[in-house]
Design brief:
The complex is a heterodimer. By secondary structure, chain A is mainly beta. Chain A has strands at residues 4-7, 10-13, 19-25, 31-37, 43-51, 54-57, 64-66, 76-78, 87-94, 104-105, 109-113. In chain A, strands 2, 4, 5, 6, 9, 10 and 11 form a seven-stranded mixed β-sheet that branches. Chain B is an all-beta fold. Chain B has strands at 4-6, 11-14, 19-25, 32-38, 44-50, 55-57, 60-65, 70-75, 84-95, 98-103, 107-112. The chains are: A mainly beta, B mainly beta. The interface between A and B is medium-sized, with 26 and 26 residues.
Chain lengths: 114, 113
Amino acid sequence: DGGITQSPKYLFRKEGQNVTLSCEQNLNHDAMYWYRQDPGQGLRLIYYSQIVNDFQKGDIAEGYSVSREKKESFPLTVTSAQKNPTAFYLCASIPYTGAGQPQHFGDGTRLSIL
Amino acid sequence: RKEVEQDPGPFNVPEGATVAFNCTYSNSASQSFFWYRQDCRKEPKLLMSVYSSGNEDGRFTAQLNRASQYISLLIRDSKLSDSATYLCVVNSYSGAGSYQLTFGKGTKLSVIP
């Protein structure tokens, strides 16, 4: 079955630690996105990538980094510079960037501070 | 500033009721519009796209008013399984050939037996 797989489902970060969230898709989609959702809040864009080896900052990129070495994979690293990392992280993809394209999401990773 | 505004609710309605959600958006150049459904502690899932002429999918009807920058979702004959948060989502051109989605904070619906 085609889809977007995020792992792990739950992740705990210690003070000063970097952690990496995985997002893999086998849909052959060009564009991939990372969002953060806080309780009672809308989704906020962290980073996005339209093609391999290229990515752009979203609205809240500080304290995060990404890479896009393969079309299928778009990992997100939450660095120690992100002082409030506790949130629900969602990865999404679309076939290609364009108007009229709804995004489809993975089932998310919940990150908490130890 | 790009914004999508929704009434947060909660809307508590009895089974079988009709309920309507409204959403306004600030970017007049927005291109496309969607309603997503998000269950508690789950990812958002696409419910339906919203077309200029209005569109219907079973018990769900979506309307778009570009002049007023307003989107609506009507749910008829509410079921217990409709209980969720409904997200209004707007797709706008963000430059350099890319489009971005802006999400409302969602409207919570609870359908009561």
